[in-house]
Amino acid sequence: MAVLLRIPKTSIKSFSSCISRNFSVTTLNSEIDLKVPSFLSQNSLPRRQETKDGNVQWVFLGCPGVGKGTYASRLSTFLGVPHIATGDLVREELNSSGPLASQLKETVNQGKLVSDEIIISLLSKRLEAGEVKGESGFILDGFPRTIRQAEILEGVTDIDLVVNLKLRKEALLAKCLGRRICVECGRNYNVACIDIKGDNGNPGIYMDPLPAPPQCVTKLIQRADDTEEVVKERLRIYNEMSQPVEEFYRSRGKLLEFDLPGGIPESWPKLLEALNLDHEDKCSAVA
Ligand code: ADP
Q1: Domain residue limits at 205
Q2: Atom 12 of ligand 1, residue of closest alpha carbon
Q3: Which UniProt keywords apply (predicted)?
Protein backbone atom coordinates (compact mmCIF):
# COMPACT_ATOMS: atom_id res chain seq x y z
CA MET A 1 0.00 0.00 0.00
CA ALA A 2 1.20 3.49 -0.72
CA VAL A 3 2.40 5.43 2.26
CA LEU A 4 1.41 9.05 2.51
CA LEU A 5 3.39 11.62 4.36
CA ARG A 6 0.90 13.94 5.90
CA ILE A 7 1.96 17.27 7.32
CA PRO A 8 -0.06 18.52 10.29
CA LYS A 9 -2.30 21.48 9.56
CA THR A 10 -0.23 23.87 11.69
CA SER A 11 2.82 23.10 9.61
CA ILE A 12 1.34 23.31 6.17
CA LYS A 13 2.65 26.79 5.52
CA SER A 14 6.23 26.09 6.46
CA PHE A 15 6.09 22.82 4.60
CA SER A 16 4.49 24.04 1.43
CA SER A 17 7.62 23.18 -0.49
CA CYS A 18 7.60 19.68 0.97
CA ILE A 19 4.13 18.89 -0.20
CA SER A 20 5.23 18.68 -3.79
CA ARG A 21 8.06 16.42 -2.68
CA ASN A 22 5.80 13.94 -0.88
CA PHE A 23 6.58 10.48 -1.98
CA SER A 24 5.21 7.02 -1.75
CA VAL A 25 6.95 4.15 -0.05
CA THR A 26 5.82 0.58 -0.34
CA THR A 27 5.02 -1.18 2.91
CA LEU A 28 3.27 -4.37 3.77
CA ASN A 29 0.03 -2.95 5.02
CA SER A 30 0.41 0.22 6.94
CA GLU A 31 0.56 3.95 6.52
CA ILE A 32 3.46 5.96 7.79
CA ASP A 33 2.48 9.37 8.97
CA LEU A 34 5.43 11.40 10.24
CA LYS A 35 3.87 14.28 12.07
CA VAL A 36 6.35 17.08 12.35
CA PRO A 37 5.90 20.29 14.28
CA SER A 38 5.80 23.70 12.71
CA PHE A 39 9.25 24.69 13.94
CA LEU A 40 10.81 22.41 11.38
CA SER A 41 11.83 24.57 8.47
CA GLN A 42 13.97 24.60 5.40
CA ASN A 43 17.35 25.69 6.76
CA SER A 44 20.71 25.92 5.10
CA LEU A 45 23.88 24.36 6.50
CA PRO A 46 24.64 25.88 9.90
CA ARG A 47 26.88 28.88 10.06
CA ARG A 48 28.73 29.87 13.17
CA GLN A 49 26.13 32.44 14.26
CA GLU A 50 23.21 30.13 13.65
CA THR A 51 24.23 27.49 16.13
CA LYS A 52 23.06 29.37 19.21
CA ASP A 53 19.60 30.31 17.99
CA GLY A 54 17.87 27.09 18.94
CA ASN A 55 17.16 26.18 15.36
CA VAL A 56 19.75 23.58 14.56
CA GLN A 57 18.41 20.42 13.02
CA TRP A 58 21.24 17.97 13.38
CA VAL A 59 21.54 14.20 13.22
CA PHE A 60 24.11 12.04 15.00
CA LEU A 61 25.08 8.80 13.27
CA GLY A 62 27.48 6.15 14.48
CA CYS A 63 27.82 2.53 15.50
CA PRO A 64 26.47 1.21 18.79
CA GLY A 65 28.92 2.14 21.54
CA VAL A 66 30.51 5.07 19.72
CA GLY A 67 29.08 7.64 22.13
CA LYS A 68 26.29 9.24 20.08
CA GLY A 69 24.16 9.71 23.17
CA THR A 70 26.99 11.25 25.21
CA TYR A 71 27.99 13.85 22.62
CA ALA A 72 24.47 14.55 21.32
CA SER A 73 23.30 15.14 24.88
CA ARG A 74 26.24 17.48 25.67
CA LEU A 75 25.63 19.44 22.50
CA SER A 76 21.93 19.67 23.19
CA THR A 77 22.69 21.33 26.56
CA PHE A 78 25.30 23.52 24.92
CA LEU A 79 23.02 24.70 22.11
CA GLY A 80 19.74 24.69 24.03
CA VAL A 81 17.96 22.30 21.69
CA PRO A 82 16.29 19.01 22.56
CA HIS A 83 18.23 15.78 22.28
CA ILE A 84 15.89 13.20 20.83
CA ALA A 85 17.22 9.64 20.93
CA THR A 86 14.95 7.10 19.29
CA GLY A 87 16.61 4.37 21.39
CA ASP A 88 15.34 6.18 24.51
CA LEU A 89 11.85 6.45 23.01
CA VAL A 90 11.89 2.73 22.28
CA ARG A 91 13.08 1.89 25.82
CA GLU A 92 10.41 4.12 27.37
CA GLU A 93 7.77 2.34 25.33
CA LEU A 94 9.05 -1.16 26.11
CA ASN A 95 9.14 -0.35 29.82
CA SER A 96 5.56 0.86 29.69
CA SER A 97 2.45 -1.27 29.83
CA GLY A 98 1.50 -0.14 26.32
CA PRO A 99 0.39 -2.59 23.63
CA LEU A 100 3.78 -2.52 21.87
CA ALA A 101 5.88 -3.25 24.96
CA SER A 102 6.41 -6.99 24.62
CA GLN A 103 6.95 -6.89 20.85
CA LEU A 104 9.54 -4.12 21.26
CA LYS A 105 11.31 -5.93 24.05
CA GLU A 106 11.76 -9.00 21.90
CA THR A 107 13.04 -7.03 18.90
CA VAL A 108 15.45 -4.86 20.88
CA ASN A 109 16.80 -7.74 22.97
CA GLN A 110 17.66 -9.60 19.77
CA GLY A 111 19.58 -6.56 18.49
CA LYS A 112 17.18 -6.08 15.57
CA LEU A 113 15.75 -2.81 14.30
CA VAL A 114 12.22 -1.83 15.23
CA SER A 115 9.97 -1.34 12.21
CA ASP A 116 10.04 2.02 10.46
CA GLU A 117 6.31 2.42 11.17
CA ILE A 118 6.75 2.10 14.93
CA ILE A 119 9.81 4.35 15.02
CA ILE A 120 8.06 7.05 12.97
CA SER A 121 5.05 6.86 15.24
CA LEU A 122 7.17 7.19 18.43
CA LEU A 123 9.17 10.05 16.92
CA SER A 124 6.06 11.87 15.73
CA LYS A 125 4.59 11.70 19.22
CA ARG A 126 7.81 13.03 20.73
CA LEU A 127 8.05 15.91 18.24
CA GLU A 128 4.44 16.87 18.79
CA ALA A 129 4.86 16.84 22.57
CA GLY A 130 7.94 19.04 22.15
CA GLU A 131 6.04 21.46 19.98
CA VAL A 132 3.40 21.85 22.67
CA LYS A 133 6.20 22.73 25.11
CA GLY A 134 7.56 25.32 22.66
CA GLU A 135 10.68 23.41 21.66
CA SER A 136 12.55 24.41 18.55
CA GLY A 137 15.36 22.67 16.71
CA PHE A 138 16.66 19.22 17.64
CA ILE A 139 19.58 16.87 17.72
CA LEU A 140 18.40 13.48 16.56
CA ASP A 141 20.35 10.50 17.85
CA GLY A 142 19.76 7.06 16.36
CA PHE A 143 17.41 8.31 13.63
CA PRO A 144 17.44 7.86 10.70
CA ARG A 145 18.85 4.37 10.77
CA THR A 146 17.59 3.09 7.44
CA ILE A 147 17.51 4.67 3.99
CA ARG A 148 13.74 4.67 4.17
CA GLN A 149 13.76 6.63 7.43
CA ALA A 150 16.23 9.09 5.86
CA GLU A 151 13.93 9.56 2.86
CA ILE A 152 10.94 10.11 5.09
CA LEU A 153 12.82 12.72 7.12
CA GLU A 154 14.04 14.40 3.95
CA GLY A 155 10.45 14.53 2.75
CA VAL A 156 9.39 16.68 5.68
CA THR A 157 12.34 18.86 6.59
CA ASP A 158 15.88 19.87 5.74
CA ILE A 159 18.54 18.53 8.05
CA ASP A 160 21.37 21.04 8.44
CA LEU A 161 24.17 18.73 9.41
CA VAL A 162 24.84 15.05 10.04
CA VAL A 163 27.68 14.20 12.40
CA ASN A 164 29.12 10.75 11.83
CA LEU A 165 31.01 9.70 14.95
CA LYS A 166 33.67 7.08 14.41
CA LEU A 167 35.75 4.93 16.69
CA ARG A 168 37.98 1.90 16.08
CA LYS A 169 35.76 -1.13 16.03
CA GLU A 170 37.76 -2.97 18.71
CA ALA A 171 36.60 -0.25 21.14
CA LEU A 172 32.89 -0.43 20.30
CA LEU A 173 32.14 -3.83 21.84
CA ALA A 174 34.11 -2.99 25.01
CA LYS A 175 32.29 0.34 25.34
CA CYS A 176 28.87 -1.35 25.08
CA LEU A 177 29.80 -4.09 27.55
CA GLY A 178 31.19 -1.51 29.98
CA ARG A 179 28.18 0.77 29.84
CA ARG A 180 26.27 1.28 33.10
CA ILE A 181 23.14 3.37 33.54
CA CYS A 182 21.81 4.97 36.69
CA VAL A 183 18.19 3.88 37.05
CA GLU A 184 17.39 7.05 38.93
CA CYS A 185 18.93 9.89 36.87
CA GLY A 186 19.32 7.97 33.59
CA ARG A 187 22.95 9.05 33.11
CA ASN A 188 25.39 6.73 31.35
CA TYR A 189 28.74 5.72 32.84
CA ASN A 190 31.37 3.25 31.71
CA VAL A 191 33.59 0.81 33.55
CA ALA A 192 35.70 -0.07 30.50
CA CYS A 193 39.24 1.20 30.16
CA ILE A 194 40.08 1.22 26.46
CA ASP A 195 43.75 1.07 25.53
CA ILE A 196 44.29 0.09 21.92
CA LYS A 197 47.76 0.36 20.47
CA GLY A 198 48.30 1.93 17.07
CA ASP A 199 49.00 -0.44 14.16
CA ASN A 200 49.31 -0.34 10.36
CA GLY A 201 49.01 3.41 10.28
CA ASN A 202 45.93 3.43 12.57
CA PRO A 203 46.45 5.61 15.63
CA GLY A 204 46.07 3.99 19.04
CA ILE A 205 43.30 5.12 21.33
CA TYR A 206 43.06 5.47 25.09
CA MET A 207 39.80 6.10 26.92
CA ASP A 208 39.51 6.28 30.67
CA PRO A 209 36.52 4.66 32.36
CA LEU A 210 33.72 7.09 33.17
CA PRO A 211 32.97 6.34 36.84
CA ALA A 212 29.58 6.99 38.38
CA PRO A 213 29.41 9.57 41.18
CA PRO A 214 28.64 8.23 44.71
CA GLN A 215 24.92 9.02 44.49
CA CYS A 216 24.56 6.75 41.41
CA VAL A 217 26.95 3.92 42.31
CA THR A 218 24.33 1.73 43.99
CA LYS A 219 21.75 2.29 41.25
CA LEU A 220 23.65 1.15 38.19
CA ILE A 221 22.19 -1.30 35.70
CA GLN A 222 23.24 -2.71 32.33
CA ARG A 223 21.01 -2.48 29.28
CA ALA A 224 19.52 -5.88 28.44
CA ASP A 225 20.81 -5.50 24.85
CA ASP A 226 24.40 -4.78 25.96
CA THR A 227 25.46 -8.44 25.98
CA GLU A 228 28.28 -9.63 23.72
CA GLU A 229 26.00 -11.62 21.43
CA VAL A 230 23.45 -8.83 21.02
CA VAL A 231 26.05 -6.07 20.57
CA LYS A 232 27.68 -8.09 17.78
CA GLU A 233 24.30 -8.41 16.09
CA ARG A 234 23.64 -4.65 16.50
CA LEU A 235 27.02 -3.91 14.92
CA ARG A 236 26.23 -6.27 12.04
CA ILE A 237 22.87 -4.63 11.50
CA TYR A 238 24.43 -1.18 11.67
CA ASN A 239 26.81 -2.11 8.86
CA GLU A 240 24.02 -3.55 6.77
CA MET A 241 21.17 -1.08 7.34
CA SER A 242 22.63 2.13 8.72
CA GLN A 243 25.95 2.56 6.96
CA PRO A 244 24.12 3.32 3.69
CA VAL A 245 22.54 6.27 5.54
CA GLU A 246 26.05 7.74 5.88
CA GLU A 247 26.38 7.65 2.08
CA PHE A 248 22.88 9.15 1.72
CA TYR A 249 24.01 12.27 3.57
CA ARG A 250 27.58 12.25 2.19
CA SER A 251 26.18 12.52 -1.32
CA ARG A 252 24.14 15.54 -0.20
CA GLY A 253 27.22 17.26 1.25
CA LYS A 254 25.81 17.15 4.79
CA LEU A 255 28.06 14.58 6.44
CA LEU A 256 30.71 15.66 8.92
CA GLU A 257 33.01 12.71 9.67
CA PHE A 258 34.47 12.87 13.16
CA ASP A 259 37.03 10.33 14.40
CA LEU A 260 36.95 10.33 18.18
CA PRO A 261 40.54 10.88 19.33
CA GLY A 262 39.98 9.46 22.84
CA GLY A 263 37.67 9.94 25.80
CA ILE A 264 35.48 12.95 26.55
CA PRO A 265 38.28 15.30 27.70
CA GLU A 266 40.11 14.96 24.35
CA SER A 267 37.10 14.52 22.09
CA TRP A 268 34.69 17.19 23.32
CA PRO A 269 36.85 20.26 22.57
CA LYS A 270 37.85 18.80 19.20
CA LEU A 271 34.23 18.11 18.33
CA LEU A 272 33.28 21.69 19.15
CA GLU A 273 36.15 22.85 16.98
CA ALA A 274 35.00 20.64 14.11
CA LEU A 275 31.53 22.11 14.51
CA ASN A 276 33.01 25.60 14.36
CA LEU A 277 31.76 26.55 17.80
CA ASP A 278 33.50 29.35 19.70
CA HIS A 279 36.40 28.75 22.06
CA GLU A 280 34.79 30.68 24.93
CA ASP A 281 31.58 28.70 24.47
CA LYS A 282 33.74 25.60 24.58
CA CYS A 283 35.21 26.53 27.97
CA SER A 284 31.81 27.21 29.52
CA ALA A 285 30.38 23.99 28.09
CA VAL A 286 33.13 21.86 29.54
CA ALA A 287 33.04 23.58 32.93
P1 ADP B 1 22.62 1.66 19.83
O2 ADP B 1 23.58 1.65 20.97
O3 ADP B 1 22.50 0.30 19.17
O4 ADP B 1 22.87 2.76 18.86
P5 ADP B 1 20.00 2.79 20.64
O6 ADP B 1 19.83 3.11 22.08
O7 ADP B 1 20.12 3.92 19.69
O8 ADP B 1 21.22 1.80 20.59
O9 ADP B 1 18.79 1.88 20.16
C10 ADP B 1 18.41 0.73 20.88
C11 ADP B 1 17.50 -0.10 20.01
O12 ADP B 1 16.30 0.64 19.71
C13 ADP B 1 18.06 -0.50 18.66
O14 ADP B 1 18.87 -1.65 18.73
C15 ADP B 1 16.78 -0.75 17.87
O16 ADP B 1 16.19 -2.00 18.23
C17 ADP B 1 15.86 0.34 18.39
N18 ADP B 1 15.97 1.58 17.56
C19 ADP B 1 16.39 2.78 17.98
N20 ADP B 1 16.34 3.68 16.98
C21 ADP B 1 15.85 3.01 15.90
C22 ADP B 1 15.55 3.38 14.56
N23 ADP B 1 15.76 4.63 14.11
N24 ADP B 1 15.04 2.44 13.74
C25 ADP B 1 14.81 1.19 14.17
N26 ADP B 1 15.08 0.77 15.42
C27 ADP B 1 15.59 1.66 16.28
Answers
A1: 56-82+135-275
A2: 87
A3: Kinase, Nucleotide-binding, Transferase
